[in-house]
Write a structure and sequence with these properties.
heteropentamer; A alpha/beta (154); B alpha/beta (329); C alpha+beta (342); D mainly alpha (130); E alpha/beta (661); B: 329 residues; 5-stranded mixed beta sheet; C: 342 residues; alpha+beta; 4-stranded antiparallel beta sheet; 11 helices; 30% helix
């Protein structure tokens, strides 16, 4: 019985592999991702990282763009509040993203398709765990249908 | 209204006469009683100055251009307009020195589309008696209650206090009473209480009507960019039409986001929308969130306070608060 | 002439939408537009105007022209049009019906716009006479009879019936497909209604707009008129008037990179926009005054000059009710219709 | 004295609005308390014991009736803990339980004292009785 | 159109085991701009680097993508490589296919697919790269130290030692700061003046150090390496060049009733005065509020007395503008004045004193010549109560939330000194916690208790009352759960440390940030503790947070090391990945400046040519030497006028597009 159940899940997984864009600040989270790599802590291959100098560099337009182009989830990682390399950048990012995510929710886009996590350069394990968890969340939510551009579908 | 009209004309001609300002940005009557147009007048054509219950549009944005020209311009600011005015001064878009702000009282402005929505068509003239609106039409005389046909912003009036002025036509405390403020977040609350799918359907229904005419943007006093990102081919997001549902969403999310923390909730965006999309509900969502997350903030309350998106506190809530708040998933 | 009781009108719509798509005024989210008929749609034949005009069906706001696919460094070009499906456009008012003549002058003149032409060919127009015009109506100024619109089929509504009369071959053919739900009728009710409507039309406040000055002789005088400055001074430069106008026909062609190819599409453009007809050297009309003047000169002077006196305004009044600051063509006609300093 | 429901930290903190974890154990409340010597449990103990959940002894203590509610402890506390509100909350918790009135009308005549202001009797009656 | 070469590294088997490197090279060949793609065993090896250089020359490449380890590892290496081959170092992008691909994925198919996408994203970005050139700016080889206390003096001495000029600006008539008022220092109990005055003299005598005493900073502009500072020299009414410091004027001055600030108002001074004997400069100042000449126009005795003719009643305020490469903030602190703490009766009772006042009462140079006497009746106190944490660690409006750090130790010092000098005195300390982290600190405190018999009682004082000339101290003893009333002759309040009131306005001038307590914030709380977030502005001493003397001196020297590091450079090369404002798009709304942590954005009125239309506009200009490239401004700018070089909007969007293909 249980074997069968697992099988079903597996086939479904093959049908839908979520595409996830992760914006990582250069100083903490990108380094955290590197540490996850050198510690061989795996996370799904469909998580693709874009390096930005600071979480405050991420424009809401970039996040919408990712969804437009077919991303199923977007995550933004930066230094822990108080530890920003640029001292205050992530504080601004935090407000911007809070409002943006709230607006997406208000427009009826599924909660959980967007996330912000603070990952330090020492937190390779957290980076990997976060990406695994986020990928699982997006998998549960299913493909992004509400915020995509039909022209960009293959 | 008639009384104020007389006072206004007298005061304006006095200010132009004594050289306080050399022109006024006021109103000109149109074909029908409701189709008033903003117009610049000088001493010689001041007799064209017109003022009635349809002169509700927020004129503060015109001051960007006007304050670049030579001489001082006289601006008529209703209490709600002063918020936009402050905001524009704060953002160095309006040169305060070049404007003489005359605060005028207001007891609520009328929305002709709301009269029409009551099924009153073929309007020939409108008489505003304070409580009742008498409409003469090609199909007979009609009446409606003033409160029914007030502009959206007037239903949630911020009060009769002017937040910026050089002179008040009458002191704020002597001004006529403003409409009783309804809860401006009522509809936002209602939407928040819906399920995610219901909200999605609601906004799809509304935003799919958008014809991307840019009226909401062009009228908005906060949208004062020289070149909008949506007009700038180098921005990567420029477009002239909503070629896909996504573009409708993106345009309106970004439009609201760019004015978040700067929007004074003047409601011009919704007023001018040819499709009557309740765009102010997007702005108000941001206002409500800002109030809840970061403490009450009213843009334009003064011309110095830092906006909520250019400030922070170390203990701000995390974006995950969205997961906990709002309606069901 | 045929008729059908209004309480059975769904039968007519069902018949009309049997083989082809039927577009008619339908209310969605509080506004009325021409949408494809569906069983539970909120049909609003009583509405005078849709927000966008009927031109959207022949010259849609956005339409794909072609797709380009990238394969390595090779580009494949594919046809992107969807213009061959037959459709019925029901409920077009006289003003909008006339707008097709204006658009035809543009799109069917050589070189023919094949996208527009195909839609014109595949569309059957069922126009609808007006009985309750609004204060913003002035179609009569352009010689349009709101009680007798142009179209393949014309319908009239009274309190309980719809009257149907085919006017063209296309209309006759359409009539055949729906004959089963119609019954024969005389024209008495229609005549009575036309008479009543005409009486109302006489009360229209804008019915006497005077167009006599808008001729080639006066072209330069009007162009150089100083009153454009004050009229245009507070124009917001939005595209509302253009996009609700049934005769505005300017468009932009743009490419959209989808990530796996490029879609070339065209979309309505507005001469009120700052970047309208921008070229490599910049923009020929730098100020809002010039842009504003262009719009009305085009509608009232240039177009009639090139098209046997046909104005490219049909008096539908949409811009009068939609302009955020109530500047509109009626005000322009009134102002420019008389010489300056008179 | 029978206490029929268990009162916990959360209840007292809710009634009082006090967050006992803010206390830094400086004892200034007890240092300033004018009724200190009338009490079996002292203001700082109220804070510590409520935090620990040790509430029953406080409910049985005479301190809750001897606290003058002068708010000296509230005024002086450097961390805004407001011990007097805790005392009041425990008193409330006791009074709300049936039969736990501290003062009965018939007891008043024997307590009367010509020096005692009338208002004090009325307010005590209000404070100590349901 | 770019000509891009893509180099895929095997990294031995680190990448090649899970990524089909040849397939990656093959897959990117079809991408726009790519004219060459290959794979190689170790790109970072000399062989690999020569391959890159040769290919650049052979193929005429304009840009290079390297698919390898993290850019945090070898970006700098490869930038040098491409530069050596003649292309701009910023025409390089790295696809991280090791840490973020091969090392975390086991399935080769999956790994290869991801590596291809990452490579394509790097190509997409590189297609939009433009050559960037690091800006250069000169470094003025002079430092300004604001504040002449022990922190400022130490920093100035160390900078001067390295051979650079330093100016000290001190608002008081003398340098030395709070340490001059202290009697002994813990935990060694050596005399503060004995260790401080030699340093003051060194500073005064140093050829490299220039002291602006009785002066304040008026205006600051410029940026790291190039600050321009206006210093306001307040008039002393005494010509420093002529004055010999003989002190005759002070002796003759008839106005003798001004409370002496140096002795915390415990005695009086004259209107013309030198704060204390070892003051530097030893030049008097006339207090115009007290001087009879300034008040009545008469008197002038000092002028008549002065044999050097140094008195100049016409002296005017002087403004001096100088250039500096670095600015050190060393504005120090003031002890809180406990006027709001009614329970301690500080306002009412002369025998309730603050710790600094107590220092003066114990000091041989103090008002009592070092004999401990009660201010009220000059009698010798037999019972002294010390109260800790007055104004520290609280949450009410009269308290500061922080621990002032030094009070535990100086109170132990006071208690010990009293017991040592007057063994018949009974000393009690009321404490909440005794905090003694520091070398020999806890030992010091234990000595006070065990050897000197100081009574330490855990509990706070609730009130102090004055009864018949003596003090009643009501307090709790938490450990015995008792409330006690102690008789005392004197009560000493260990008041909180507060940043100097000038901190706030100075922070604004410097665009440096301060926290909610008005302490200056450091650039990074752990890793950059002596720098402010504003480049070229450094923090020394208590202005950054409460500290004792050894810590202050350590920070002063650390700060000097940072300054020397900066001044040693002839030119500053700035990171070219900085923000840039498009002058045609900028609205001048100043939103960007509001979020800039570095004050790198200025507003100028500039004539622009907007498609033939010339007009003067108020627009943002980024100072590239100051901008750190975080990008906060780019997102806050609604018009998109502000963009970040190297991480431009279009570049990031191109990466997004490539990833989501």
């Amino acid at each position: 019985m249980q074997v069968n159940e697992t099988n079903t899940v597996n086939t479904e997984e093959k049908e839908f592999t979520p595409l996830i864009v992760a914006f990582c600040c250069n100083w903490c989270s990108y380094a955290g991702a590197d540490l996850a790599g050198s510690s061989r802590l795996s996370y799904p291959a469909n998580v693709k990282i874009i390096r930005v100098p600071c979480s405050c560099r991420v424009n809401p337009l970039f996040i919408l763009r990712a969804f437009q182009r077919g991303a199923d989830g977007v995550i933004l990682c930066g230094c822990h509040p108080g530890d920003c390399h640029y001292s205050t950048g992530n504080y601004y990012a935090r407000r911007r993203m809070t409002l943006l995510f709230s607006m997406l929710d208000y427009l009826g886009i599924e909660k959980g398709r967007t996330r912000v996590e603070w990952v330090s350069a020492a937190e390779g394990a957290k980076f990997s765990a976060t990406m695994n968890d986020f990928a699982a969340t997006i998998h549960k939510l299913g493909p992004n249908r509400k915020l995509r551009d039909l022209r960009c579908e293959k | 209204m008639r009384e104020i009209n007389e006072m206004l004309k007298k005061k304006v001609s006095e200010l132009l006469e004594n050289g306080t300002a050399d022109r006024i940005i006021g109103w000109q009557a149109g074909e029908f009683c409701y189709d008033v147009t903003p117009a610049v007048m000088r001493k010689d054509n001041l007799d064209e100055l017109f003022y009635n219950g349809f002169c509700g549009a927020n004129q503060s944005k015109y001051l960007i251009q006007e304050s670049l020209e030579e001489g001082k311009v006289l601006a008529l600011l209703k209490p709600c307009d002063t918020y936009s005015f402050n905001q524009l001064v704060k953002e160095h878009r309006v040169n305060r020195e070049k404007v003489y702000a005359l605060g005028i009282p207001c007891s609520g402005m009328l929305d002709v589309d709301k009269i029409k929505a009551l099924g009153i068509t073929g309007i020939l003239s409108i008489e505003d008696n304070g409580e009742e609106i008498k409409v003469a039409t090609m199909y007979g005389d009609k009446t409606c209650k003033r409160t029914e046909v007030l502009q959206e912003r007037c239903k949630v009036c911020k009060g009769k206090e002017h937040k910026a002025y050089d002179e008040l036509l009458i002191p704020d405390e002597d001004a006529p009473e403003v409409p009783n403020g309804e809860d401006r977040f009522e509809l936002v609350n209602k939407l928040e209480a819906m399920t995610s799918q219901e909200r999605f359907d609601f906004w799809r229904g509304e935003l799919s009507k958008c014809i991307r005419c840019n009226a909401c943007r062009n009228v908005c006093p906060a949208c004062s960019c020289r070149t909008c990102v949506f007009d700038n081919d180098n921005s990567g997001v420029a477009a002239k039409s909503n070629a896909d549902d996504f573009e409708e969403n993106m345009f309106h999310i970004i439009r609201a986001f760019h004015v978040a923390g700067r929007c004074t909730d003047c409601g011009e965006c919704s007023r001018v929308c040819p499709q009557h999309i309740p765009l102010h509900l997007l702005n108000r969502k941001f206002i409500k969130d800002i109030d809840e997350f970061y403490g009450e903030f009213q843009a334009g309350e003064d011309d110095t306070a830092k906006g909520p998106l250019t400030a922070y506190t170390e203990g701000d809530c995390e974006p995950s608060i969205v997961m906990e708040k709002g309606g069901e998933a | 002439m045929f008729k059908i009781a209004l309480d059975k009108i769904d039968e007519l719509f069902a018949a009309l939408s049997g083989n082809e798509t039927l577009y008619l005024p339908i209310e969605k989210s509080g506004e009325i537009e021409f949408y494809p008929y569906e069983k539970d749609a909120k049909v609003r034949l009583d509405a005078l105007h849709t927000v966008k005009s009927a031109k959207d069906l022949f010259f849609p706001q956005t339409e794909n022209l072609m797709n380009m696919k990238l394969d390595g460094k090779n580009i494949q070009i594919e046809e992107g049009r969807h213009v061959e499906d037959p459709f019925v456009l029901f409920g077009v008012r006289a003003c909008d019906a006339r707008s097709f003549d204006v658009l035809d002058k543009v799109f069917l003149a050589d070189p023919v716009d094949s996208y527009y032409a195909a839609r014109r060919e595949h569309g059957v127009i069922v126009s609808m006479a007006c009985s309750r015009p609004e204060e913003t109506c002035f179609c009569n100024v352009f010689g349009i009879d709101a009680t007798m619109p142009e179209g393949d089929v014309v319908v009239w509504l009274d309190t309980d019936h719809l009257y149907w009369e085919a006017k063209t071959e296309k209309g006759e053919a359409l009539t055949k497909t729906v004959e089963s739900v119609l019954t024969d009728s005389d024209s008495k009710a229609v005549e009575a209604q036309i008479a009543a409507t005409k009486e109302i039309m006489d009360k229209l406040p804008l019915k006497d707009l005077d167009l006599t000055r808008f001729t080639e002789d006066e072209m330069m005088n009007i162009f150089n008129d100083s009153r454009w400055a004050e009229m245009s001074e507070h124009c917001l430069g939005c595209g509302t008037c253009t996009f609700v106008c049934p005769t505005c026909q300017c468009y932009d062609i743009r490419d959209y990179d989808t990530g796996h190819g490029v879609v070339r599409y065209r979309c309505w453009d507005s001469c009120m926009y700052r970047d309208f007809t921008r070229m490599a050297h910049g923009n020929p009309r730098k100020s809002q005054l010039e842009r504003f003047r262009q719009r009305f000169m085009h509608k009232l002077v240039y177009f009639p000059e090139n098209n046997d006196g046909m104005f490219s305004c049909v008096g539908c009044g949409r811009c009068l009710s939609k302009c955020p600051i109530h500047t509109n063509i009626a005000k322009v006609i009134k102002t420019m219709g008389v010489k300056e300093h008179e | 004295m029978s206490l029929n429901t268990k009162i916990d930290t959360e209840t007292i903190e809710r009634i009082s609005g006090v967050n006992t974890r803010k206390c830094m154990k400086c004892g200034k409340c007890s240092a300033t308390c004018p009724a200190f010597h009338e009490m079996d449990f002292h203001p700082h103990q109220f804070v510590a014991m409520v935090e620990k959940g040790d509430i029953e002894p406080l409910m049985k203590s005479k301190s809750i009736w001897n606290c003058l509610t002068c708010f000296a402890c509230v005024q002086r506390c450097p961390r805004d803990v407001e011990p007097a509100k805790l005392v009041e909350a425990i008193r409330q918790a006791v009074i709300r339980q049936a039969g736990e009135n501290h003062l009965k009308a018939e007891q008043i005549p024997e307590m009367l004292d010509s020096e005692l202001p009338q208002q004090a009797i009325v307010s005590a009656f209000r404070k100590y009785k349901k | 159109m770019q000509k891009i070469g893509v180099f895929v590294c095997w990294c031995g088997s680190n990448i090649a085991a899970t990524v089909d490197v040849a397939a990656v090279a093959e897959a990117v060949k079809g991408e726009p701009g790519v004219v060459f793609a290959t794979d190689y065993q170790y790109m970072c090896s000399e062989g690999g680097q020569s391959l890159i250089k040769e290919t650049i020359k052979e193929q005429g490449l304009t840009g290079v993508v390297i698919c390898s380890c993290s850019p945090r590892m070898h970006e700098a290496t490869f930038r040098k490589t491409v530069e050596a081959a003649g292309i701009n170092p910023y025409m390089l992008e790295i696809a991280n296919i090791r840490e973020q691909c091969s090392w975390i994925h086991k399935n080769k198919e999956e790994g290869t697919e991801k590596a291809i996408i990452l490579a394509k994203a790097a190509v997409a970005k590189l297609n939009l790269n433009t050559p960037l050139i690091a800006g250069e700016s000169r470094v003025v080889k002079r430092a300004l130290v604001i504040g002449g206390g022990i922190a400022g003096i130490q920093t100035a001495l160390d900078i001067a030692e390295a051979g650079y000029e330093v100016d000290i600006v001190e608002k008081q008539p003398t340098i030395g700061g709070k340490m001059t008022q202290i009697d002994k220092t813990f935990p060694t109990l050596d005399c503060a003046a004995c260790i401080l005055t030699p340093k003051m003299v060194d500073a005064a005598q140093s050829e490299k150090i220039n002291i602006y005493s009785y002066s304040e900073v008026e205006k600051v502009s410029g940026f790291v390496g190039n600050f321009s500072v206006t210093i306001k020299k307040k008039p002393r009414y005494v010509n420093s060049d002529l004055c010999t410091g003989c002190g005759a004027c002070m002796e003759k001055c008839p106005s003798k009733k001004t409370p002496n600030e140096f002795n915390m108002g415990l005695d009086n001074r004259t209107a013309i005065y030198i704060p204390f004997a070892q003051a530097i400069p030893k030049v008097p100042v006339i207090d115009t509020a007290a001087c009879l000449h300034f008040k009545t126009g008469k008197c002038g005795i000092c002028q008549k007395t002065c044999s050097a003719n140094a008195i100049d009643f016409d002296q005017k305020e002087e403004l001096i503008t100088k250039e500096y490469g670095a600015i050190v903030v060393a504005t120090g602190f003031n002890p809180l004045k406990p006027t709001k703490f009614d329970e301690y009766q500080y306002n009412q009772c002369a025998d309730v004193v603050t710790s600094l006042e107590f220092e003066r009462l114990m000091n041989a140079a103090g008002p009592t010549k070092g004999v401990l006497l009660r201010p009220s009746d000059q009698s010798h106190p037999k019972k002294i109560v010390f109260v800790q944490c007055v104004g520290s660690r609280g949450q009410s409006c009269r308290d500061h939330s922080y621990c002032s750090k030094i009070c535990c130790m100086y109170t132990a010092k006071h208690a010990m000194l009293v017991r040592d000098k007057y063994p018949d005195t009974d000393v009690t300390v009321f404490y909440i916690d005794v905090r003694t982290p520091g070398k020999n600190f806890d030992e010091f405190y234990r000595r006070a208790v065990e050897e000197y018999g100081v009574h330490y009682i855990k509990g706070m004082v609730g009130k102090v009352e004055q009864v018949d000339g003596s003090l009643k101290v009501q307090a709790s003893d938490l450990l015995s759960n008792d409330q006690m009333v102690l008789d005392a002759d004197m009560v000493v309040l260990a008041t909180a440390v507060e940043p100097d009131p000038t901190a706030k306005s100075l922070a604004t001038m410097l665009t440096a940030s301060i926290d909610t307590n008005n302490f200056f914030t450091e650039a990074h709380p752990k890793l950059r503790p002596v720098e402010s977030p504003t480049a070229g502005v450094y923090l020394s001493g208590v202005c950054q947070g409460p500290k004792d003397i050894p810590e202050t001196v350590a920070q002063g020297s650390a700060c000097a090391a940072k300054v020397i590091g900066l001044l040693a450079k002839d030119k500053l090369l700035s990171n070219p990945c900085v923000a840039h404002s498009d002058e045609l798009l900028c609205n001048g709304c100043s939103t960007c400046a509001n979020v800039c942590a570095y004050g790198a954005i200025d507003y100028v009125d500039k004539e622009v040519n907007d498609h033939g239309k010339r007009e003067v506009r108020h627009i943002a200009v980024v100072n590239e030497a100051v901008c750190q490239g975080c990008g906060a401004c780019t997102v806050t700018c609604p018009s998109g006028a502000m963009d970040l070089k190297g991480f431009a909007n279009r570049q990031i969007m191109a990466e997004v597009d490539a990833i989501c293909k």
